Amino acid sequence: MDGKRSCSLCGGAMMIMMMMMMISHMTSALEVPLDLPQPPTITNQSPKDYIIDPRENINIFCEAKGKPHPSFSWTRNGTHFDVEKDPKVVMMPGTGNLVIDISGEKAEVYEGVYQCIARNEHGSAVSNNIVIRQSRSPLWSKEKNEPITVQRGTSLILQCRPPAGLPPPIIFWMDNNFQRLPQNSRVSQALNGDLYFSNVIMEDTRNDYICYARFPHTQTIQQKQPITVKVLDNSPSGERVPSFLHPPGMESTTMVLKGDTLELECIADGLPTPNISWTKVNGELPSGRFSFYSFQKTLKIKEVTEADGGDYRCIAKNRMGSSQHTITVVVRAAPFWISAPQNLILAPKETGNLTCDVDGNPKPTITWSVNGNPIESSHNDPSRKVSDGVITLSDVQTGSSAVYQCNASNDYGYLLANAFVSVLAEPPRVLTSLNHEYSVISNSRALLDCASFGSPLPKITWFKDSQSILNSDLYHIHKNGTLEINVAQPQNSGKYTCIASNNLGNKENHVHLQVKEPTRIIRQPEYKEVQRNSIAVFECKVKHDPTLIPSMIWLKDNGELPDDPRFEVGSDSLTIHDVTEDDEGTYTCIRNTTLDQDSASATLTVVEQPDPPTDLELTDQRERSVRLTWTPGDEHNSPIKLFLIQYEDSLHEPGVWLNMTEVSGTSTTAQLELSPYVYYSFRVLALNGVGLSESSDPSRQYRTNPAKPDVNPSDVEVSGTSPDTMTISWRELSGLESNGPGLQYKVSWRMKDAEQWTTVTLANVSQHVVTGTPTFTLYEVTVQAVNDYGEGPRPEVVLGYSGENSPTVAPENVKVSVQSGTEAEVHWEAVPLSSVRGRLKGYKVTYQKMRSLHKQDYDRENPQVLIFSGEETVGRLPDLHPYSHYRLNIRAFNGHGDGPSSTDQQFQTPEGVPGPPTNVNIRNLNLDSLLVEWTPPLEDNGHLTGYLLKYQPINTTEEAGLLKEVLLPANETSYTLDKLTHSTHYKFFLNAMTETGSGPAVTKEAFTEVDEALIRHPAVEAGKGSAPPSPPPPTPPVTQSLQPPFQAPPAGPMFGNVNSSVKEDHAVISWEYLGPDGNVYVEYVVDNSKEPWKTEFVNGTRTFQIRGLKPGMSYRVRLVAKDHSDATIHSTQEMLITVPAMTNRQAEIATQGWFIGLMCAIALLILVLLIVCFIKRNKGGKYPVKEKEDAHQDPEIQPMKEDDGTFGEYSDTEDHKPLKGSRTPSNGTVKKDDSDDSLVDYGEGGDGQFNEDGSFIGQYSGKKEKDTAEGNESSEAPSPVNAMNSFV
Description:
Layout: H1 2-5, H2 10-27, E1 38-45, E2 49-52, E3 58-60, E4 62-67, E5 71-76, E6 79-81, E7 89-91, E8 98-100, E9 112-120, E10 123-126, E11 130-134, E12 148-151, E13 156-158, E14 170-174, E15 187-189, E16 195-197, E17 206-215, E18 220-223, E19 227-232, E20 240-246, E21 251-257, E22 262-265, E23 267-271, E24 275-280, E25 290-293, E26 298-301, E27 310-318, E28 321-339, E29 344-346, E30 352-355, E31 357-361, E32 365-370, E33 373-374, E34 384-387, E35 390-393, E36 402-410, E37 413-423, E38 426-430, E39 436-441, E40 446-448, E41 452-455, E42 459-464, E43 467-469, E44 475-477, E45 483-485, E46 494-502, E47 505-516, E48 520-523, E49 528-531, E50 536-539, E51 541-543, E52 551-556, E53 559-560, E54 567-569, E55 573-576, E56 585-592, E57 597-607, E58 614-619, E59 625-631, E60 642-649, E61 653-664, E62 669-673, E63 679-687, E64 702-703, E65 714-719, E66 725-731, H3 735-738, E67 744-751, E68 758-762, E69 767-771, E70 778-787, E71 790-791, E72 798-801, E73 812-820, E74 823-829, E75 840-852, E76 864-869, E77 874-877, ...
Parallel strand pairs: 2-11, 12-19, 21-28, 29-37, 39-47, 49-57
Antiparallel strand pairs: 1-4, 3-8, 5-6, 5-9, 7-8, 9-10, 9-11, 13-16, 14-17, 15-16, 17-18, 17-19, 20-23, 22-26, 24-27, 25-26, 27-28, 28-31, 30-35, 32-33, 32-36, 34-35, 36-37, 38-41, 40-45, 42-43, 42-46, 44-45, 46-47, 48-51, 50-55, 52-53, 52-56, 54-55, 56-57, 58-59, 59-62, 60-61, 60-63, 63-64, ...
């Protein structure tokens, strides 16, 4: 990123440089090749005013070119300066550069005016007058500064007046701690270095006002003696209208030179401190060239022109009035070139002019010299004519070459220019390199050089593709031979030829032009408004010519980006992490190539919550109001929307701040309405678009005087909680509403229309219970606030009833009308209102199913309650059970409780339609048969009369075939459908019926089995579609349409009747293909996997078996039709099939005949082997195990341990291989046992052991000792253990 930051303002610099190059292409002076004779030309020289450092050597530059190479000499103060005679001065070889060693010498010795002369046989050129002056930093004159005493409010000037230096020193004011003295609109430093006070305050008293002068050439700093200022307050100055301290009076005049910087200054006295503003009389301040400094007291205008002359007015203003001062600016000008003389190349007999066109104010005087000598004193040349600023040379001759000097001067400076006249006869030559490549951007100007030389000057002609180029709207040929293409387009690319010709010959050159696409930012950075600590991203995406590689530079406020890792420059973006306030500014993206650039800018604004308001003040204080004013805090770039004013009542709720009011974000004051007897403190919060500020510091406390209450308690309510009581409740007043100490509540009540009130006075409560009241009687109630200062306003009367009691009468004439098997209607008479003893809320109808009339069971259901309003005397009982016995009663209720119940009413509901059959299942019996099974409905709702079974074939587009019906008796729970079509999708509907009608149907779908003899079986690897081998023992297929039924997605117009049937390890897909000729494929993949689809080619068939599917997995399957170019022309929607887990087959394998036969064969073989082993054992007799153990005395033999995983019994040491848990002797042999007839001698590498009675005890391996030493295998029968292992 650092490399991308290395350029500051490089975009503008690049454009300026390109413009200068274009101008030089068109206006470059005539250059004579250095291989040709020519007079001298000065190429480098020191500035006219040269201030030297007395501690370093003096270097004066003078370099020149010419043919032959010029020699150099110097003059000093107008006389010849003999360099060779001064040992301190050395002229560098090949140049006129002087090095003066001033060590041991005073630099003043070499001060003066120096001029260099470069000469050869064709003329002499001279340099400017170079004034050498030594820089000076004189000491401050000794002085004693008396303390300055001044009254508060008056103005003050502290003079600096440093010693004159060369160049002038830089002035600044500091204190004893080397800290700069603070400056502001009241205190500021003038251009001459003095310190001005518009008015003084008590804080200006100090004894260390020190003026410092820094001399830049010597880098020395000198200080003035400290100045002591004492401000008195015994006779302060009052407020006054401003007057000017500098410049004094009402008018003044200043002069400035054209091109310099104009500085105008106005410093005013006044109290309060005046503000300064500037205007130009009869004009406007020059746009883009003026600026203000020193708190508006200084106006600067850079690069002054004649138009900047005139009157400027500064205005000082405060609340007491204003004053103004007019400064008249006079613009003068040192001489400046309009057209400097240029070198002149002439052929013999030619005529030419040297022009010296200058201007200035006053008008400059022009003088001519030849080879450094005044033209008047040179020899008379009849071919030369001088007329003011023009020299005309006519009919020149060979050998008349010379260098002419033009000197233009006025009171403010001079200009000196050398121009030689060279008389040559030279054929043309082209100086531009051959086949030079030019590249420009489309729609820009192209300049093709054809720099040439010849005498006479050659004429330049241009050609493109053999076509002559003439001046036109598109082309322009400049005097120096440069071809300009005004607006270059891609078709202007190609080869160009220029020909230089004069009377001595011709010369041609070829150049090439490439016109490229411009660089354009297509995604510009946009304005960003972000919060602090967040991320800001500016985009800058560019489109450019492919042959140009653009670089990217980001600038902040036209300067380099901060060197901070938070700034991340990407390929097309700038990201600022953890944004801070310092990151605010304008960000510019510059995308430039070697030919052009584009830039775009956007502003970053950092916003955050505002700072809290400050300076809270309370004014206009009254009994019930006060005015609060404040000073807003920093908005942080997000305007304040409103101010929230909060208060704290430290008397009643100390530490609790409550919202009081809101005011507009443009306000800084609010009139606050107050309550009596409150100790107020206020604070203010500001809200902007980001959020609320912190709260301000609290204001001072403001206490209001007590008063009688303004309001009474609110929310007064009367309620009865029991038959003989009445509760009066209210919302208590807050401390803010109490208005004074001793707050109490005066509670009064009486029966409606009674005369006498009963009153109690209470404190710190919010209710009162009145006892001994009659039941449900209307009362009038009031609650009034009182305190030590009086009663509140007259309270409002609130009506309410005393407590209720339960109703005393049950509803009568209850009648039930049965509407259907599931609905009944009940009627009753309303109870008398006098029996309610409260507010009648309604009637509760309680009904309960006692039993079913069909099942003769007595499992009662829980009672159900329906509530009807007090105005109703009829109600409907929904959701009853058909063919059931019910009981019902009714009671009235009020707010206190329920009244007595009516007499129970009995009623019965008629039969209804039954519920749906349950556990419906459909199974395949064979290719053309399906078995439908079910269980009776859970709800018979009457006497079942039978079942209705309907079925019909359907295809994948839900088109149904002929619907068939079968009526079945009530005792049937299964039915077999024969003579169905194989490989067909069927839909079934099953209803239960009573005398009332049919109940809801259960819908199921199923497939008949696919005839696998019709299926094409391609031979592929497992896991793909394959031809099935001989079928295994049959297992019932799982039909995909059962619970929930599988429905193939609708197929497109090319595929129809797409069906699937899934078995334990394969799936069968069938379809109809109606499309054009093409290739048909079955594709499948595991559901929710990222594996590629597996594809099987299935042309020529309408069914396909996918084998090798994994149990328990789901697959997505689709059919695809492709044309002969393998492009997909149609694809069905995906079907989801699930392969059942193997647990079913594992559970059913034990019932298969082939498995039972295999197990029997294995058992028979084991029995035969055991008999053989028993015969062999009896051949050698029986030996106790203990004797076998005693015979093994070899210490190397270790019994097997249980922790080894072995049995810990006995081992045969006659084996050639050691047993587990034993060790073999070092010689590799095993000790032979005395016994050779035991069963253990017959084990051959088996994994198990048998003890002496034939039981299995461990591992034996090896051969009997009688076997041959060569390791021949034993001829004995194999170990029965090995035989067992061979079957596992």
